[in-house]
Amino acid sequence: MTYHPSFEKSLKQVAEWVETPVTKRAIVYAGDFENTHGVIQLLNYRNLKEML
Questions:
Q1: Which long-range contacts (CB under 8 A, 24 or more apart) does 8-16 make?
Q2: What radius of gyration do the chain's Cα atoms show?
Q3: Over the stretch 1-52, which tens digit does the pLDDT of each residue have?
Q4: CA-to-CA distance for 23 and 29, rounded, in angstroms?
Q5: What CA–CA distance (Å, rounded) separates 35 from 40?
Q6: Contact criterion met (CB below 8 Å) for 25 and 41
Q7: Which of 27, 35, 38, 52 has the fewest CB atoms found within 10 Å of its own CB?
Q8: Do the Cβ atoms of 31 and 1 come closer than 8 Å?
Q9: Which string of DSSP letters, residue by residue, matches 3-48?
């Protein structure tokens, strides 16, 4: 439930692992803090329906 910057480590490296360009990245978790404007979005799983 508590966000930690280390959650972003793999998402930042994914561009090196795949050939297809990655345009969007998100961390889905149970915490209350959300950020939908960053390079890596932070999303609460309860609000995913609103993002689709």
A1: 8/40, 11/40, 12/40
A2: 12
A3: 788 888 888 888 887 888 888 888 889 999 988 988 888 889 999 988 776 6
A4: 20
A5: 8
A6: yes
A7: 52
A8: yes
A9: --GGGGHHHHHHHHH-SSPP--EEEEES-S--BSSSSEEEEEGGGH
> For tokens 């149970």, what's the residue?
30
Question: Which residue has 């998100």 as its token pair?
Answer: 26
State phi, psi for 43 to the nearest 5 degrees: -130, 135
Q: Which two tokens stand for residue 43?
A: 């999303």
Q: Check the CA dihedral 21-19-43-2 and report its sign.
A: negative
For residue 39 the two structure tokens come to 């390079």
Q: Which residues pair with 44 in a beta bridge?
A: 29
pTM of the model: 0.70
Contact 32, 42 (CB under 8 A): no
